[in-house]
C-alpha cells in the first residue's frame, strides 16, 4: 500500500507537468495564431481602404488632364510655323533645309542644296558660269569703292547671297532657291519696282546669261 500512493503522486505530478506544458504551448500557439490574422487583416484592410479611394482620384484627374496634355502637345507642335515641320530638335522648312530635305533626317550631300524639297547638285557653277558674267560689272562694282557697296570682283559670292540691298532696304540681292525674290534678277531684268536703274546701265544682258544666273539661284545659289 505504501508504493501505490507514491506512484499515484508521481503520476499526478507528471500529469500536472504535462498539463502545464500543454497549456503553456497551447496558449502561446493561440497568441501567435491570433496575432497573425489580426496583422494580416489590418494590413489587408489598410491596403484595400487606401487603394479604394486612391484609384478613382487619379482617374478623375486623368480624365480632364489628358485632353489638356494633348492640347499642350499640339500647342508645342504648333510652336513651329505653318510652313515648318517639327523634326525632333528643331523646326525646319522641309522645302529648303539641307539637313531635312523633303523629310526629316534626309540630309543633302556635300555640294548639294535643298531646293523645293529635293537635294540638287547644281548644274550651274558659280565660279565657272556666273562669275565670268559678273566680270563685266567690275569696272563699277570692284576696286576700292564699288558702286552701291556691291563688290563683284574678289568676294562676289559673299556680296550677293543673303545680303540686303543697299539702295532698296528689305530686298535681298540673291535669295537662294528664289530667283523671283532676288533683287539681283530684278535689277538685271529691269523690274518695275527696283530702286535706281536697270543693270548693267550699258544694256540688258543676253538672255542666255540671265538664264544662267536664274538657274544658279534656283539651284540654291551654291558656292560651287
Ligand atoms: C557703269 C557702272 C556700272 C556697271 C557696269 C554696273 N553697275 Fe550695277 N550699279 C551701278 C550703280 C551706280 C549702282 C547704284 C545705283 C542704282 O542702283 O542704280 C548700281 C547698283 C547695282 C545693284 C544694286 C545693289 C544694291 O545693293 O542695291 C546691283 C544688284 C547691280 N548694280 C548689279 C550689277 C551687275 C550684275 C552688273 C553687271 C552685269 C552691274 N551692276 C554693272 C553702276 C554699275
- What integer is the average pLDDT? 77
> Which residues form runs of ≥5 with pLDDT under 50?
11-76
How many helices? The count is 6
CA gyration radius, whole angstroms: 45 Å
Strands across the major sheet, in which order? 1-2
Heteromolecules bound: heme C
**End-to-end distance:** 134 Å
> Which geometry do the CA atoms define?
elongated
Structural class of the helix and strand makeup? mainly alpha
- Please summarize the sheet with the most strands: 2 strands, antiparallel
| Helix share, percent | 40-55%
Instruction: Write down the domain tally.
Output: 3
Per DSSP, what share of the residues sits in E-state strands of 2 or more residues? under 5%
- Give the helices and strands as they follow along the chain: HHEEEEHHHH
Amino acid at each position: 500500500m505504501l508504493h501505490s500512493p507514491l506512484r499515484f503522486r508521481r503520476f499526478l505530478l507528471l500529469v500536472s507537468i504535462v498539463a502545464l506544458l500543454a497549456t503553456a504551448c497551447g496558449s502561446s500557439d493561440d497568441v501567435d495564431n491570433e496575432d497573425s490574422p489580426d496583422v494580416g487583416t489590418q494590413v489587408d484592410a489598410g491596403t484595400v481602404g487606401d487603394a479604394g479611394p486612391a484609384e478613382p482620384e487619379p482617374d478623375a484627374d486623368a480624365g480632364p488632364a489628358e485632353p489638356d496634355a494633348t492640347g499642350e502637345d499640339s500647342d508645342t507642335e504648333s510652336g513651329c510655323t505653318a510652313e515648318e515641320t517639327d523634326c525632333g530638335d528643331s523646326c525646319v522648312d522641309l522645302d529648303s533645309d539641307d539637313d531635312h530635305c523633303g523629310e526629316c533626317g534626309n540630309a543633302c550631300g556635300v555640294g548639294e542644296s535643298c531646293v523645293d524639297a529635293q537635294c540638287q547638285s547644281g548644274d550651274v557653277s558659280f565660279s565657272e558660269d556666273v562669275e565670268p558674267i559678273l566680270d563685266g560689272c567690275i569696272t563699277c562694282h570692284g576696286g576700292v569703292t564699288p558702286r552701291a557697296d556691291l563688290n563683284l570682283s574678289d568676294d562676289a559670292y559673299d556680296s550677293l547671297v543673303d545680303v540686303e540691298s543697299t539702295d532698296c532696304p528689305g530686298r535681298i540681292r540673291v535669295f537662294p532657291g528664289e530667283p523671283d525674290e532676288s533683287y539681283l534678277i530684278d535689277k538685271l531684268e529691269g523690274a518695275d519696282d527696283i530702286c535706281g536703274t536697270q543693270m548693267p546701265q550699258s544694256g540688258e544682258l543676253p538672255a542666255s546669261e540671265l538664264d544662267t544666273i536664274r538657274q544658279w539661284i534656283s539651284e540654291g545659289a551654291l558656292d560651287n
